[in-house]
Design a protein that fits this description.
InterPro entries: Peptidase_S1_PA (IPR009003). By secondary structure, the chain is of the alpha+beta class. It has nine helices and 19 strands. It has two domains: 308 residues, no CATH class; 61 residues. 29% of the residues lie in helices and 26% in strands. The strands form four sheets. Strands 4-1-7-8-9-6-5-19 form an eight-stranded antiparallel sheet. Strands 13-14-15-18-17-16 form a six-stranded antiparallel barrel. Helix 1 packs across helix 9 and helix 8 runs antiparallel to helix 9. 39% of the residues are buried.
C-alpha cells in the first residue's frame, strides 16, 4: 500500500433526467462527455530520479496523464466550414513545463487498449505559473481552453455521464441541451448574475457532483464545493435545471472551483460574436451509449505492478519521514548560517542557495504527503 500511495503521489507531482436508450442499436461512443481521455508523451523517459537520489526504471504508464472529456459537437465557422470537435482545457492538450512533450493525439482507455479519438487544433497558451498555481492571480485571470478535432471514424454522443477513480457512479446519464451563452465580460470585470445558481460536473476522478455558482469573470465560472480533483480537468460542467453546458473544468483552489466558460472557448477559438454561439455550435444528433471505458484505479494498479517488476527489492521512501528530514536539515542549516552571520560572515549568495535547496525539498515531500492523503481518500 505504501508503494502504491508513493508512486501515485510521485506521478501526480511530475501534476437530470435519465435518458431512454433508443430501440435501434447504436455504436458505443468513444467521444463521450464525462468519460476519461489520456495523454501520452512523444517519448516516455525510461527512468526518473527521485529527490533522494534514487533512480527508478519506470514504465510508459508512469507518464500517462489523465483528463476528462468535455462537450462534443459540430462547429460551423464564420467561413462556413464545419468541424467535429470536443471542448476541453488547454492544460489537457498541451505539454506542461517539467513533463515530457506530449503527442498531439488523444486516446481513451477501453479493454486495456488506447484507441485514438482526435488531435488538438487550437488552444490558448498558459503560463507555468497559472498551471502550478504559484501565481494565483494569473490562474484566475487566464483563459484555459483547448479544441480537439474528433476523428471521422469516432462515434460521438450528447449524453454526459461519469465514473469516479474506483469506477463508482453517482448520477444518471444527462442529455446536454446546448451552450449557456453568457454576456461576455470585459477583462477585469466581475459579475454575480449567476450567484446561487446550481452547477454540476462529470469527472473521471470524482464522478458526478453538484454545487452552487458564486460569480463569474471573463474566463471563469466560479463555484463553491464542486470537488474538482486532478483528472477531472476538461470535463463538462452543466446547469442541472436545463442541462445547458456551462463550461469545462479548469482549476481548483481548495473548495473554490473555476470552469472555463464554453461560450468563451468558441468565441476565442473561432471569432464567433457574443450571443451567437448556439448558431454556430450543434450538439451530436446521437444519444448512443458510451463505450465501457477503463478506470484510473486499474491503470494505477497496473503501473505500480510494472514499477515493482522493473525495480525488484526497491523500498520507496516514506514521504512523512523524508519531509521530517528535510525540515530538520533546513533548521540545521539556518542555525549554521545564523552563527556565521553573528561572526560577520554574511554571504547573501550562500543564503539564497540554501533557501532554494531547502524550499525545493520541503515543497516536494510536502506535496508527496498531500498526495498520499488524497490517495487514502480515493482508495
Amino acid at each position: 500500500m505504501k508503494k502504491t500511495r508513493f508512486f501515485t503521489a510521485a506521478a501526480a507531482l511530475l501534476l437530470t433526467p435519465a435518458l431512454a436508450v433508443p430501440a435501434a442499436a447504436a455504436e458505443p461512443a468513444l467521444a463521450s462527455p464525462g468519460a476519461p481521455f489520456r495523454i501520452f508523451p512523444e517519448k516516455a523517459p525510461e527512468t526518473v530520479t527521485l529527490p533522494t537520489g534514487d533512480e527508478l526504471k519506470v514504465p510508459p504508464l508512469f507518464w500517462l496523464r489523465t483528463c476528462t472529456q468535455g462537450p462534443t459537437g459540430t462547429v460551423r465557422t464564420l467561413d462556413g466550414d464545419t468541424q467535429r470537435v470536443m471542448l476541453t482545457a488547454s492544460h489537457c492538450v498541451n505539454t506542461i513545463s517539467g513533463l515530457p512533450p506530449i503527442k498531439n493525439e488523444f486516446s481513451v482507455p477501453v479493454d486495456g487498449t488506447y484507441p485514438r479519438i482526435g488531435e488538438r487544433t487550437a488552444s490558448n497558451d498558459l503560463k507555468p505559473s497559472a498551471i502550478d498555481l504559484s501565481d494565483p492571480m494569473e490562474s484566475i485571470r487566464t483563459a484555459d481552453w483547448g479544441i480537439m478535432r474528433i476523428d471521422d471514424n469516432v462515434s460521438a454522443t450528447n449524453i454526459s455521464n461519469s465514473r469516479d477513480y474506483n469506477g463508482g457512479s453517482a448520477g444518471e446519464p444527462v442529455a446536454l441541451s446546448g451552450i449557456k451563452d453568457y454576456r461576455t465580460l470585459q477583462p477585469g470585470e466581475v459579475s454575480a448574475d449567476n450567484f446561487g445558481q446550481p452547477i454540476c460536473k462529470d469527472g473521471s476522478t470524482t464522478g458526478r457532483s453538484c454545487a452552487t455558482q458564486i460569480g463569474r469573470t471573463r474566463n471563469g465560472v466560479w463555484s463553491w464545493g464542486l470537488n474538482y480533483q486532478q483528472g477531472d480537468s476538461g470535463g463538462v460542467n452543466f446547469d442541472p435545471r436545463d442541462n445547458s453546458i456551462i463550461g469545462v473544468t479548469s482549476m481548483t483552489l481548495g473548495p473554490l472551483g473555476k470552469a472555463q466558460p464554453a461560450d468563451r472557448i468558441l468565441e476565442d477559438a473561432y471569432g464567433i460574436p457574443d450571443g451567437q454561439v448556439n448558431e454556430h455550435f450543434t450538439l451530436p444528433d446521437s444519444s448512443a451509449p458510451r463505450a465501457e471505458f477503463g478506470i484510473t484505479a486499474d491503470e494505477e494498479k497496473q503501473m505500480n505492478q510494472q514499477l515493482d517488476e522493473l525495480n525488484p527489492g526497491f523500498e520507496p521512501p516514506v514521504p512523512r519521514d523524508e519531509l521530517r528530514k528535510a525540515v530538520d536539515s533546513a533548521q540545521q542549516d539556518a542555525a549554521g548560517l545564523a552563527q556565521k552571520a553573528s561572526r560577520g560572515e554574511f554571504n547573501p549568495a550562500e543564503i539564497d542557495r540554501a533557501v532554494s535547496h531547502h524550499s525545493e525539498k520541503i515543497g516536494y515531500w510536502g506535496g508527496a504527503v498531500l498526495g498520499e492523503e488524497i490517495g487514502k481518500r480515493l482508495s
